Recover the amino acids of this structure.
């Protein structure tokens, strides 16, 4: 009996090393079994009826509300939040289920039941178990973010590739003295020839300044000290200079030989404005009359235009020679047709007449690249720049400059309009055409600017003012490569009046 008792003791000791069937399940075993059974039972509608609700345990933490962890390294392919093993198993099941054919007849009802079962069994919505979920509107990129591919391949201009605005100096390139200058708003005492020679009238004398060489020449001087020069105008070729005087005459000078060719008398008052159209010279007088002179014939006076009631202070032929624009102290702007060869007339009819200006109109300029566009500027009582369409007769635009306008000229290099001003600014303004937005202001004159003219290469504008100075502003220089190409295209033209003046 003692022997059997010893064997029983040995068996009882050995049983301690064997698995204990009645003991509670280990934690790691309980966690593994619950993740394998509850996930599949909770997502299988056909088998969920055989599982008791009491056998599934609600997890202590809601997986769907776990805090997401930021990846330790930046620049990865994508960011996947950390999830527990149960959610990964559910996600794997959803991926395999998507490829299986199913009945789509009651999709809405099945999805609602599936959501309810998932909430009851797992404590979170099944949609939250998906690895990737796309929905809603995409978030805006953070401020300052720039897509590298867009920078490299996009056709849109970036700040680095935008063309920079040209530099316009606020100081003149050169200043010339103009002593004894007559400070009269209605006179035109400055003109620049196509041969790069600047003509200026100082009281009763005319001086020529060669802008290429820098030489100064006294061309002529009136005999009587009380007489004075009122207007100057170069021919297109730059060989001859017309001079209007206070003794009602128009003189014609050969500049190369410094010789007066003829003196034409037809006006009854001073000649304050001149303009050439081939062999036709038009002159405006203080009497309000405009005379056409054919300089090829002895009887030079061929036509008279009577429209203005006061002094004609502005006179400009269009570049194509079709129209003559005139402005007067009566605040009117007229446009006249071309003179017919061989016709002497005193009843010329104007094409247009505009009365919108409220001040004297001395400033007139034709657009070189649009032959039907005329710009006009009013005096102290008006101060407006107006752009006209001669064909339609309409005013395209109007701008209040807040200052008296004494002269206008178009700068074709940058398609801009330059205006000279008297009271109250006494400066020069550059405007973009056709928007008439201000590009720059050129300040420096100490008195009102009386007139301005453009150099033959259209890069420099010369201004003359009551402070007895002439200032040259180099504001329209073009690229050297474009300049050489333009010069090659320009062809020399023979002078029409070179052979026929007598």
């Amino acid at each position: 009996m003692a022997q059997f008792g010893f064997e029983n003791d040995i068996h009882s000791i050995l049983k301690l090393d064997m698995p204990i069937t009645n003991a509670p399940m280990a934690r790691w075993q309980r966690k593994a079994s619950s993740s394998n059974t509850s996930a599949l039972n909770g997502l299988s509608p056909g088998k969920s009826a055989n599982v008791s609700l009491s056998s599934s345990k609600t997890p202590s933490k809601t997986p769907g509300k776990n805090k997401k962890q930021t990846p330790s390294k930046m620049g990865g392919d994508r960011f996947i939040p950390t999830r527990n093993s149960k959610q990964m198993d559910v996600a794997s099941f959803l991926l395999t289920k998507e490829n299986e054919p199913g009945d789509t007849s009651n999709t809405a009802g099945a999805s609602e039941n599936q959501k309810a079962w998932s909430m009851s069994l797992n404590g979170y919505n099944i949609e939250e178990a998906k690895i990737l979920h796309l929905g809603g509107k995409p978030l805006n990129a953070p401020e300052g973010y720039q897509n590298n591919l867009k920078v490299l391949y996009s056709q849109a201009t970036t700040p680095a590739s935008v063309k920079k605005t040209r530099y316009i100096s606020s100081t003149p390139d050169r200043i010339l003295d103009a002593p004894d200058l007559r400070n009269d708003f209605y006179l035109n005492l400055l003109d620049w020839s196509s041969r790069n020679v600047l003509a200026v009238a100082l009281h009763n004398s005319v001086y020529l300044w060669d802008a290429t060489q820098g030489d100064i020449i006294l061309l002529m001087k009136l005999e009587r000290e009380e007489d004075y020069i009122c207007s100057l105008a170069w021919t297109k070729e730059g060989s001859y200079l017309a001079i209007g005087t206070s003794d009602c005459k128009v003189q014609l000078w050969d500049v190369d030989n410094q010789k007066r060719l003829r003196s034409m008398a037809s006006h009854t008052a001073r000649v304050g404005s001149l303009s050439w159209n081939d062999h036709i010279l038009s002159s405006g007088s203080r009497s309000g009359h405009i005379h056409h002179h054919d300089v090829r014939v002895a009887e030079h006076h061929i036509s008279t235009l009577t429209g203005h009631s006061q002094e004609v202070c502005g006179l400009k032929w269009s570049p194509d020679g079709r129209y003559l624009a005139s402005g007067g102290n009566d605040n009117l702007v007229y446009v006249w047709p071309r003179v017919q060869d061989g016709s002497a007339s005193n009843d010329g009819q104007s094409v247009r007449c505009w009365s919108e200006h409220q001040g004297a109109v001395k400033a007139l300029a034709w657009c070189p690249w649009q032959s039907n566009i005329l710009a006009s500027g009013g005096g102290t009582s008006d101060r407006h720049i107006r752009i006209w369409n001669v064909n339609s007769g309409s005013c395209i635009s109007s701008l209040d400059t807040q200052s008296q306008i004494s002269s206008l000229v178009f700068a074709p290099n940058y398609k801009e309009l330059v205006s000279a001003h008297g009271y109250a600014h006494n400066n020069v303004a550059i405007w973009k055409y056709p928007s008439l937005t201000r590009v720059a202001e050129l300040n420096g004159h100490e008195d009102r600017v009386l007139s301005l003219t453009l150099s033959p290469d259209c890069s420099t504008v010369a201004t003359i003012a009551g402070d007895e100075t002439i200032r040259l502003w180099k504001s329209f220089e073009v690229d050297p490569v474009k300049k050489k190409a333009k010069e090659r295209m320009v062809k020399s033209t023979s002078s029409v009046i070179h052979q026929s003046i007598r």
DSSP finds six helices and 28 strands in the chain. The helical segments are 2-14, 27-43, 85-98, 107-122, 148-153, 480-489. The two ends are 168 Å apart (CA to CA).
